[in-house]
C-alpha cells in the first residue's frame, strides 16, 4: 500500500486559481493551516467559489480536509457541500453547477470545524492532473441547493489534499 502524504508539494502554485475570491482573502491562504488567513468569496457577489488546482505530476487523491474558521458553521460561512471535478481545467461556474461531477461531498459540522479528513472514492481519483473544487449553488434534481451553512459569503481556512503521486509502470518489450 502506498503511503499517504499531503499533496501540497505537488500543487503547481503558479497556476493555482479561485474564481470569485476576495482580493484580500486569496486561495493561497488555504495551503497552510492557520486562522490568521483564509479564503473568502467576494463580498456582495455570492457564496460561490471555484478553486482550481493543477499538479506538477499526476496524483492519486485519497482524502481531503476542508477546515472552516472557528465560527464558520455558527456564522453560516463554512462550506457544506462540495462538488469535485478531475481533469477539467476549463471548468466555469455554469459547468460546475450543471455538469456531472467526479464526487459530491456533504461536509458534516465536525468535518469543517475540526478539519477532519474526508475520504474520497479513491478509484475515481487515480490519475489526476487537475482538480476543481466547487462551492456554490447548483441544481440538484428540481431544486436549488445552497452550498454553505447559509451565509452569502463563504470562508475557508484550509484545504488539504492527501494521497500519492501516480507512478507509471513501464512494460519492457525486450526480446532475448
Automatic annotation (TrEMBL):
Q: What species does this protein belong to?
A: Theileria annulata
Alphabetical list of InterPro entries matching this protein:
Galactose-bd-like_sf, PITH1-like, PITH_dom, PITH_dom_sf
Q: Which family would the database say this protein is a member of?
A: Belongs to the PITHD1 family.
Kindly give the Pfam families that the UniProt entry links to this protein.
PITH
GO CC, alphabetical = cytoplasm
- What domain of life does the UniProt record list for this protein's source? Eukaryota
Ranges for domain PITH come to: 1-176
Q: What is the designated name of this protein? A: Conserved protein, thioredoxin-like
